[in-house]
Amino acid sequence: MEKTRRYRGKGAKDAMLHINVRLPQYVVDHFKRFPSYTKEIRSVLEMYVKEAEEIGATHVALNQQRWQDILAEENEDE
């Protein structure tokens, strides 16, 4: 029986970059309480970016609707 081992492989998961970040001591102390503090930091940052992108997309949609309303009002005035 042959064991099949799963590797990350091309396109299976985005590659990560290594960066240095300076953080205040109290932030590091907070994350050091977790079993894998770097994993927790990544998780928090990824959630923040996803929420920011969703909010940004919502703002774009709202702004487009506002412009359509303004243009409709201008067309009615003519």
Which secondary structure elements does this structure contain, and how are they paired or packed?
Blueprint: H1 25-31, H2 37-77
Summarize the structure.
With 78 residues, the chain is mostly helical. It has helices at 25-31, 37-77.
Structural class: mainly alpha
- How much helix is in the residues? 55-70%
List segments where confidence is low: pLDDT < 50 over at least 5 consecutive residues: none
**Biggest sheet, open or closed, and with what strands and sense?**
none
Order of SSEs: HH
What is the strand tally?
0
How many helices? 2
Core attributes:
single chain, 78 residues, mainly alpha, elongated
Describe the structure.
The structure is a single chain. The chain is 62% helix and 0% strand. It is mostly helical and 78 residues long. The protein has a domain at 36-77.
